[in-house]
Amino acid sequence: MKLHTLLIGLVAVGVLTSCSKKPEPKVTPVPAPVQPAAPVLQPRTGEPVQPVTAQAVKDAAMVELGKKLFFDPRLSKSGFISCNSCHNLSMGGSDNLKSSIGHKWHQGPINSPTVLNSSMNLAQFWDGRAKDLKEQAGGPISNPGEMSFTHELAVGMLQSIPGYVEEFKKVFKSETIDIDQVTSAIAAFEETLVTPNAKFDKWLQGDDNALTKEELAGYELFKSSGCTACHNGVALGGNSFQKMGAVEPYKSKNPAVGRFAVTKDNADRFKFKVPTLRNVELTYPYFHDGAAPTLSKAVEIMGQIQLGKTFTPEENANIVAFLKTLTGDQPKFELPQLPPSSDTTPAPQPFGK
Ligand code: HEC
Ligand code: HEC
Fold this sequence. Notes:
Elements: H1 2-19, H2 60-71, H3 83-86, E1 101-102, E2 106-107, H4 133-142, H5 151-159, H6 162-172, H7 179-191, H8 199-204, H9 213-225, E3 241-243, H10 260-263, E4 271-273, H11 295-307, H12 313-324
Antiparallel strand pairs: 1-2, 3-4
The chain binds heme C (2 copies).
Protein backbone atom coordinates (compact mmCIF):
# COMPACT_ATOMS: atom_id res chain seq x y z
CA MET A 1 0.00 0.00 0.00
CA LYS A 2 2.72 2.35 0.92
CA LEU A 3 4.54 1.88 -2.38
CA HIS A 4 1.28 2.34 -4.23
CA THR A 5 0.58 5.67 -2.58
CA LEU A 6 4.11 6.79 -3.37
CA LEU A 7 3.67 5.89 -7.04
CA ILE A 8 0.40 7.75 -7.26
CA GLY A 9 2.11 10.67 -5.66
CA LEU A 10 4.92 10.59 -8.21
CA VAL A 11 2.52 10.33 -11.12
CA ALA A 12 0.51 13.20 -9.74
CA VAL A 13 3.63 15.31 -9.52
CA GLY A 14 4.57 14.26 -13.05
CA VAL A 15 1.16 15.15 -14.38
CA LEU A 16 1.16 18.42 -12.58
CA THR A 17 4.55 19.43 -13.91
CA SER A 18 3.90 18.28 -17.46
CA CYS A 19 0.66 20.25 -17.48
CA SER A 20 2.09 23.54 -16.44
CA LYS A 21 3.85 25.07 -19.44
CA LYS A 22 6.62 26.74 -17.56
CA PRO A 23 7.71 24.77 -14.57
CA GLU A 24 8.48 27.25 -11.89
CA PRO A 25 11.22 26.07 -9.59
CA LYS A 26 9.83 25.87 -6.16
CA VAL A 27 11.41 28.57 -4.09
CA THR A 28 10.84 29.28 -0.52
CA PRO A 29 10.16 32.97 -0.35
CA VAL A 30 13.01 34.74 1.38
CA PRO A 31 11.99 37.93 3.06
CA ALA A 32 13.48 40.89 1.19
CA PRO A 33 16.45 42.28 3.08
CA VAL A 34 15.32 45.23 5.07
CA GLN A 35 16.80 48.35 3.49
CA PRO A 36 17.87 50.75 6.15
CA ALA A 37 16.01 53.99 5.58
CA ALA A 38 18.34 56.46 3.83
CA PRO A 39 19.67 58.66 6.58
CA VAL A 40 18.52 62.23 6.32
CA LEU A 41 21.74 64.15 5.73
CA GLN A 42 22.22 67.21 7.81
CA PRO A 43 24.26 69.77 5.85
CA ARG A 44 27.14 71.13 7.91
CA THR A 45 26.86 74.76 8.82
CA GLY A 46 29.45 77.25 9.94
CA GLU A 47 32.20 75.90 7.65
CA PRO A 48 34.39 78.41 5.77
CA VAL A 49 33.77 76.46 2.56
CA GLN A 50 30.41 75.83 0.85
CA PRO A 51 29.46 73.23 -1.78
CA VAL A 52 29.28 73.97 -5.51
CA THR A 53 25.78 73.90 -6.96
CA ALA A 54 25.23 72.87 -10.58
CA GLN A 55 24.57 75.78 -12.89
CA ALA A 56 21.12 76.10 -14.42
CA VAL A 57 21.45 76.79 -18.15
CA LYS A 58 19.64 80.04 -18.94
CA ASP A 59 19.90 80.11 -22.73
CA ALA A 60 20.79 76.70 -24.18
CA ALA A 61 21.21 77.98 -27.76
CA MET A 62 23.65 80.67 -26.65
CA VAL A 63 25.61 78.19 -24.53
CA GLU A 64 25.87 75.84 -27.51
CA LEU A 65 27.17 78.66 -29.72
CA GLY A 66 29.65 79.69 -27.02
CA LYS A 67 30.88 76.12 -26.80
CA LYS A 68 31.59 76.11 -30.55
CA LEU A 69 33.50 79.39 -30.29
CA PHE A 70 35.47 78.07 -27.30
CA PHE A 71 36.64 75.13 -29.42
CA ASP A 72 37.09 77.00 -32.72
CA PRO A 73 40.77 77.55 -33.64
CA ARG A 74 39.71 79.84 -36.50
CA LEU A 75 39.39 82.60 -33.89
CA SER A 76 43.20 82.70 -33.97
CA LYS A 77 45.44 84.03 -36.73
CA SER A 78 47.10 80.64 -37.08
CA GLY A 79 43.79 78.83 -37.36
CA PHE A 80 45.32 76.45 -34.87
CA ILE A 81 44.83 77.85 -31.37
CA SER A 82 41.47 77.80 -29.62
CA CYS A 83 40.50 78.72 -26.08
CA ASN A 84 40.59 74.99 -25.43
CA SER A 85 44.29 74.84 -26.44
CA CYS A 86 45.25 76.61 -23.22
CA HIS A 87 42.15 75.79 -21.16
CA ASN A 88 41.83 72.15 -22.10
CA LEU A 89 38.54 70.82 -20.75
CA SER A 90 40.01 67.32 -20.74
CA MET A 91 42.72 68.55 -18.35
CA GLY A 92 40.87 70.50 -15.69
CA GLY A 93 40.45 73.59 -17.89
CA SER A 94 44.17 74.39 -17.97
CA ASP A 95 47.15 73.39 -20.14
CA ASN A 96 49.36 71.81 -17.49
CA LEU A 97 52.28 73.90 -18.75
CA LYS A 98 54.42 76.22 -16.66
CA SER A 99 53.33 79.03 -18.95
CA SER A 100 51.12 78.82 -22.01
CA ILE A 101 52.26 78.58 -25.63
CA GLY A 102 50.68 81.07 -27.99
CA HIS A 103 50.93 82.21 -31.61
CA LYS A 104 54.11 81.09 -33.40
CA TRP A 105 55.23 79.09 -30.37
CA HIS A 106 55.40 82.26 -28.30
CA GLN A 107 56.14 81.44 -24.68
CA GLY A 108 53.47 83.07 -22.55
CA PRO A 109 54.41 85.17 -19.53
CA ILE A 110 52.24 83.45 -16.97
CA ASN A 111 50.53 80.19 -15.98
CA SER A 112 47.06 79.63 -17.43
CA PRO A 113 44.41 79.49 -14.70
CA THR A 114 41.54 77.04 -15.03
CA VAL A 115 38.29 78.14 -16.66
CA LEU A 116 36.37 75.73 -14.41
CA ASN A 117 34.26 77.65 -11.89
CA SER A 118 35.79 80.90 -13.17
CA SER A 119 32.34 82.52 -13.09
CA MET A 120 32.78 82.64 -9.29
CA ASN A 121 35.86 84.90 -9.49
CA LEU A 122 35.52 88.49 -8.29
CA ALA A 123 37.42 89.47 -11.46
CA GLN A 124 39.37 87.67 -14.19
CA PHE A 125 43.15 87.18 -14.69
CA TRP A 126 45.79 86.85 -11.99
CA ASP A 127 45.76 90.62 -11.53
CA GLY A 128 41.99 90.98 -12.00
CA ARG A 129 42.29 93.33 -14.98
CA ALA A 130 39.06 92.07 -16.60
CA LYS A 131 35.92 92.63 -14.57
CA ASP A 132 34.06 89.54 -15.79
CA LEU A 133 34.09 86.60 -18.20
CA LYS A 134 32.61 88.62 -21.05
CA GLU A 135 35.29 91.30 -20.82
CA GLN A 136 37.96 88.62 -20.41
CA ALA A 137 36.96 86.67 -23.52
CA GLY A 138 37.93 89.51 -25.85
CA GLY A 139 41.49 89.55 -24.49
CA PRO A 140 43.10 86.36 -25.81
CA ILE A 141 41.65 86.70 -29.34
CA SER A 142 43.57 89.93 -29.94
CA ASN A 143 46.57 89.21 -27.72
CA PRO A 144 49.59 88.94 -30.07
CA GLY A 145 51.16 86.30 -27.83
CA GLU A 146 48.01 84.20 -27.64
CA MET A 147 45.60 84.00 -30.59
CA SER A 148 47.13 87.04 -32.35
CA PHE A 149 43.97 88.01 -34.23
CA THR A 150 41.97 91.23 -34.15
CA HIS A 151 38.34 91.48 -33.19
CA GLU A 152 37.53 92.78 -36.70
CA LEU A 153 39.24 89.82 -38.36
CA ALA A 154 37.59 87.37 -35.97
CA VAL A 155 34.14 88.81 -36.71
CA GLY A 156 34.89 88.85 -40.47
CA MET A 157 35.92 85.23 -40.30
CA LEU A 158 32.68 84.22 -38.52
CA GLN A 159 30.62 86.31 -40.93
CA SER A 160 32.12 84.34 -43.85
CA ILE A 161 30.78 81.05 -42.48
CA PRO A 162 27.09 80.50 -43.31
CA GLY A 163 26.62 78.05 -40.44
CA TYR A 164 27.72 80.68 -37.95
CA VAL A 165 25.73 83.50 -39.56
CA GLU A 166 22.60 81.44 -39.16
CA GLU A 167 23.35 80.44 -35.59
CA PHE A 168 24.22 83.98 -34.43
CA LYS A 169 21.01 85.20 -36.06
CA LYS A 170 19.01 82.61 -34.18
CA VAL A 171 20.62 83.45 -30.83
CA PHE A 172 20.98 87.25 -31.06
CA LYS A 173 18.13 88.10 -33.47
CA SER A 174 20.47 90.30 -35.45
CA GLU A 175 21.61 90.30 -39.09
CA THR A 176 25.25 91.03 -38.31
CA ILE A 177 27.74 89.43 -35.98
CA ASP A 178 29.74 91.65 -33.61
CA ILE A 179 32.43 91.01 -31.01
CA ASP A 180 30.00 91.72 -28.21
CA GLN A 181 27.91 88.73 -29.29
CA VAL A 182 31.02 86.59 -29.57
CA THR A 183 32.18 87.34 -26.03
CA SER A 184 28.65 87.06 -24.61
CA ALA A 185 28.26 83.58 -26.07
CA ILE A 186 31.68 82.43 -24.83
CA ALA A 187 30.92 83.78 -21.35
CA ALA A 188 27.53 82.02 -21.33
CA PHE A 189 29.28 78.74 -22.11
CA GLU A 190 31.95 79.35 -19.46
CA GLU A 191 29.25 79.97 -16.84
CA THR A 192 28.16 76.36 -17.28
CA LEU A 193 31.66 75.06 -16.47
CA VAL A 194 31.05 74.46 -12.79
CA THR A 195 32.05 71.24 -11.07
CA PRO A 196 29.60 70.01 -8.41
CA ASN A 197 29.62 66.71 -6.44
CA ALA A 198 33.21 66.72 -5.20
CA LYS A 199 33.85 64.26 -2.38
CA PHE A 200 34.36 67.21 -0.09
CA ASP A 201 30.97 68.63 -1.06
CA LYS A 202 29.32 65.34 -0.16
CA TRP A 203 30.92 65.65 3.27
CA LEU A 204 29.74 69.27 3.55
CA GLN A 205 26.26 68.07 2.67
CA GLY A 206 26.39 65.79 5.67
CA ASP A 207 27.77 62.47 4.41
CA ASP A 208 30.13 61.45 7.21
CA ASN A 209 31.57 58.62 5.15
CA ALA A 210 32.59 60.79 2.22
CA LEU A 211 36.08 61.54 3.58
CA THR A 212 38.83 59.26 4.89
CA LYS A 213 40.53 59.93 8.20
CA GLU A 214 43.52 61.46 6.40
CA GLU A 215 41.39 63.71 4.19
CA LEU A 216 39.44 64.96 7.19
CA ALA A 217 42.65 65.53 9.18
CA GLY A 218 43.93 67.48 6.17
CA TYR A 219 40.84 69.69 6.16
CA GLU A 220 41.12 70.32 9.90
CA LEU A 221 44.75 71.33 9.46
CA PHE A 222 43.88 73.47 6.43
CA LYS A 223 41.47 75.38 8.67
CA SER A 224 43.53 75.50 11.85
CA SER A 225 46.69 76.60 10.02
CA GLY A 226 44.91 79.57 8.50
CA CYS A 227 44.72 78.55 4.82
CA THR A 228 41.02 79.46 4.91
CA ALA A 229 41.89 83.09 5.61
CA CYS A 230 42.43 83.34 1.84
CA HIS A 231 41.04 80.11 0.39
CA ASN A 232 37.40 80.16 1.46
CA GLY A 233 33.87 80.34 0.06
CA VAL A 234 32.45 78.03 -2.58
CA ALA A 235 35.57 78.16 -4.78
CA LEU A 236 38.15 78.19 -1.94
CA GLY A 237 39.60 81.29 -3.55
CA GLY A 238 38.76 83.64 -6.38
CA ASN A 239 37.23 86.18 -4.01
CA SER A 240 40.18 88.37 -2.99
CA PHE A 241 43.62 89.63 -3.99
CA GLN A 242 46.34 88.64 -1.55
CA LYS A 243 50.03 89.13 -1.29
CA MET A 244 52.12 86.24 -2.58
CA GLY A 245 54.55 86.06 0.32
CA ALA A 246 52.49 87.43 3.18
CA VAL A 247 55.01 86.33 5.83
CA GLU A 248 58.17 85.61 3.84
CA PRO A 249 59.00 87.01 0.38
CA TYR A 250 58.36 84.74 -2.60
CA LYS A 251 61.31 84.47 -4.96
CA SER A 252 60.36 84.25 -8.62
CA LYS A 253 62.08 84.99 -11.90
CA ASN A 254 58.67 85.89 -13.33
CA PRO A 255 58.33 89.66 -13.82
CA ALA A 256 54.58 89.77 -13.01
CA VAL A 257 53.81 92.41 -10.37
CA GLY A 258 50.23 91.36 -9.71
CA ARG A 259 47.41 93.73 -8.84
CA PHE A 260 49.81 96.72 -8.90
CA ALA A 261 49.71 96.54 -12.71
CA VAL A 262 46.04 97.54 -12.53
CA THR A 263 45.84 99.93 -9.58
CA LYS A 264 49.41 101.38 -9.58
CA ASP A 265 49.04 101.38 -5.82
CA ASN A 266 52.25 100.23 -4.13
CA ALA A 267 50.28 98.35 -1.51
CA ASP A 268 49.06 96.07 -4.34
CA ARG A 269 52.53 95.09 -5.49
CA PHE A 270 52.75 91.30 -5.71
CA LYS A 271 49.13 90.77 -4.77
CA PHE A 272 47.48 88.15 -6.96
CA LYS A 273 43.96 86.90 -7.20
CA VAL A 274 43.79 83.94 -4.83
CA PRO A 275 43.28 81.00 -7.17
CA THR A 276 40.39 78.61 -6.63
CA LEU A 277 41.41 75.27 -5.13
CA ARG A 278 38.50 73.46 -6.79
CA ASN A 279 39.93 70.72 -9.09
CA VAL A 280 43.44 71.77 -8.03
CA GLU A 281 44.56 68.15 -8.35
CA LEU A 282 44.16 68.58 -12.14
CA THR A 283 45.61 72.04 -12.69
CA TYR A 284 49.35 71.58 -12.02
CA PRO A 285 51.85 73.18 -12.17
CA TYR A 286 50.99 75.80 -9.56
CA PHE A 287 51.32 79.55 -8.90
CA HIS A 288 51.30 82.39 -11.40
CA ASP A 289 54.82 81.43 -12.50
CA GLY A 290 54.03 77.69 -12.60
CA ALA A 291 57.06 77.14 -10.37
CA ALA A 292 55.56 74.46 -8.10
CA PRO A 293 55.31 71.23 -10.11
CA THR A 294 53.33 69.27 -7.52
CA LEU A 295 50.57 69.85 -5.01
CA SER A 296 52.89 68.77 -2.23
CA LYS A 297 55.42 71.46 -3.21
CA ALA A 298 52.69 74.10 -3.48
CA VAL A 299 51.41 73.24 0.02
CA GLU A 300 54.94 73.37 1.43
CA ILE A 301 55.57 76.83 -0.09
CA MET A 302 52.16 78.18 0.98
CA GLY A 303 52.79 77.03 4.55
CA GLN A 304 56.16 78.74 4.65
CA ILE A 305 55.56 82.04 2.88
CA GLN A 306 51.91 82.72 3.71
CA LEU A 307 51.78 81.39 7.27
CA GLY A 308 55.35 80.86 8.49
CA LYS A 309 54.63 77.16 9.05
CA THR A 310 56.65 74.07 8.20
CA PHE A 311 54.44 71.01 7.84
CA THR A 312 55.70 67.51 8.68
CA PRO A 313 55.58 65.08 5.72
CA GLU A 314 52.46 63.52 7.24
CA GLU A 315 50.72 66.87 7.65
CA ASN A 316 51.64 67.82 4.10
CA ALA A 317 50.27 64.50 2.81
CA ASN A 318 47.01 65.00 4.71
CA ILE A 319 46.49 68.48 3.29
CA VAL A 320 47.23 67.16 -0.21
CA ALA A 321 44.74 64.32 0.36
CA PHE A 322 42.14 66.90 1.38
CA LEU A 323 42.86 69.09 -1.66
CA LYS A 324 42.27 66.08 -3.91
CA THR A 325 38.74 65.73 -2.52
CA LEU A 326 37.93 69.05 -4.22
CA THR A 327 37.79 67.48 -7.69
CA GLY A 328 34.18 67.67 -8.85
CA ASP A 329 32.24 66.38 -11.83
CA GLN A 330 34.03 67.59 -14.94
CA PRO A 331 31.97 69.16 -17.74
CA LYS A 332 30.25 66.50 -19.85
CA PHE A 333 28.90 67.28 -23.28
CA GLU A 334 29.07 66.27 -26.91
CA LEU A 335 32.03 67.64 -28.80
CA PRO A 336 30.76 70.54 -30.84
CA GLN A 337 30.79 70.11 -34.61
CA LEU A 338 32.04 73.37 -36.12
CA PRO A 339 30.44 74.73 -39.29
CA PRO A 340 32.86 74.45 -42.22
CA SER A 341 34.62 77.46 -43.71
CA SER A 342 33.31 78.86 -46.98
CA ASP A 343 35.20 79.83 -50.14
CA THR A 344 35.47 83.38 -48.82
CA THR A 345 36.80 82.49 -45.35
CA PRO A 346 40.33 83.94 -45.08
CA ALA A 347 43.00 81.24 -45.03
CA PRO A 348 44.67 80.59 -41.68
CA GLN A 349 48.21 81.94 -41.27
CA PRO A 350 50.07 79.57 -39.00
CA PHE A 351 53.47 80.82 -40.15
CA GLY A 352 54.67 84.02 -41.82
CA LYS A 353 54.13 87.41 -40.20
C1 HEC B 1 47.77 80.88 -25.58
C2 HEC B 1 47.06 80.38 -24.44
C3 HEC B 1 45.68 80.92 -24.14
C4 HEC B 1 44.60 81.00 -25.01
C5 HEC B 1 44.57 80.65 -26.46
C6 HEC B 1 43.50 81.48 -24.21
N1 HEC B 1 43.89 81.66 -22.92
FE1 HEC B 1 42.71 82.22 -21.39
N2 HEC B 1 44.32 82.48 -20.25
C7 HEC B 1 45.61 82.16 -20.59
C8 HEC B 1 46.52 82.68 -19.60
C9 HEC B 1 48.02 82.54 -19.60
C10 HEC B 1 45.73 83.36 -18.65
C11 HEC B 1 46.21 84.16 -17.45
C12 HEC B 1 46.67 85.52 -17.95
C13 HEC B 1 46.86 86.53 -16.86
O1 HEC B 1 46.29 86.38 -15.79
O2 HEC B 1 47.55 87.52 -17.09
C14 HEC B 1 44.34 83.18 -19.08
C15 HEC B 1 43.22 83.62 -18.36
C16 HEC B 1 41.94 83.30 -18.69
C17 HEC B 1 40.79 83.46 -17.82
C18 HEC B 1 40.80 84.01 -16.41
C19 HEC B 1 40.73 82.93 -15.37
C20 HEC B 1 41.04 83.44 -14.01
O3 HEC B 1 40.89 82.70 -13.04
O4 HEC B 1 41.45 84.60 -13.87
C21 HEC B 1 39.70 83.02 -18.52
C22 HEC B 1 38.27 82.99 -18.04
C23 HEC B 1 40.16 82.62 -19.82
N3 HEC B 1 41.52 82.78 -19.88
C24 HEC B 1 39.35 82.21 -20.87
C25 HEC B 1 39.81 82.13 -22.19
C26 HEC B 1 38.96 82.10 -23.36
C27 HEC B 1 37.46 82.20 -23.35
C28 HEC B 1 39.78 81.98 -24.44
C29 HEC B 1 39.39 81.96 -25.91
C30 HEC B 1 38.72 83.13 -26.41
C31 HEC B 1 41.13 81.92 -23.93
N4 HEC B 1 41.11 82.04 -22.57
C32 HEC B 1 42.24 81.70 -24.72
C33 HEC B 1 45.98 81.44 -21.70
C34 HEC B 1 45.21 81.35 -22.84
C1 HEC C 1 47.52 85.20 2.70
C2 HEC C 1 46.64 84.48 1.79
C3 HEC C 1 46.90 83.00 1.59
C4 HEC C 1 47.01 82.01 2.53
C5 HEC C 1 46.97 82.15 4.03
C6 HEC C 1 47.18 80.78 1.79
N1 HEC C 1 47.17 81.02 0.46
FE1 HEC C 1 47.35 79.62 -1.00
N2 HEC C 1 47.43 81.09 -2.37
C7 HEC C 1 47.32 82.45 -2.13
C8 HEC C 1 47.64 83.18 -3.32
C9 HEC C 1 47.62 84.70 -3.48
C10 HEC C 1 47.99 82.23 -4.30
C11 HEC C 1 48.46 82.52 -5.72
C12 HEC C 1 49.86 83.02 -5.62
C13 HEC C 1 50.59 83.15 -6.91
O1 HEC C 1 50.51 82.26 -7.74
O2 HEC C 1 51.28 84.14 -7.06
C14 HEC C 1 47.83 80.93 -3.67
C15 HEC C 1 48.03 79.71 -4.33
C16 HEC C 1 47.83 78.47 -3.75
C17 HEC C 1 47.91 77.23 -4.44
C18 HEC C 1 48.20 77.05 -5.93
C19 HEC C 1 46.93 77.10 -6.74
C20 HEC C 1 47.16 77.26 -8.21
O3 HEC C 1 46.23 76.94 -8.95
O4 HEC C 1 48.21 77.70 -8.65
C21 HEC C 1 47.66 76.22 -3.54
C22 HEC C 1 47.62 74.74 -3.81
C23 HEC C 1 47.43 76.86 -2.28
N3 HEC C 1 47.53 78.24 -2.44
C24 HEC C 1 47.18 76.20 -1.09
C25 HEC C 1 47.24 76.82 0.15
C26 HEC C 1 47.31 76.11 1.40
C27 HEC C 1 47.28 74.61 1.55
C28 HEC C 1 47.40 77.04 2.38
C29 HEC C 1 47.59 76.83 3.85
C30 HEC C 1 48.77 76.08 4.20
C31 HEC C 1 47.35 78.35 1.72
N4 HEC C 1 47.27 78.16 0.38
C32 HEC C 1 47.37 79.56 2.40
C33 HEC C 1 46.94 83.01 -0.94
C34 HEC C 1 46.99 82.36 0.28
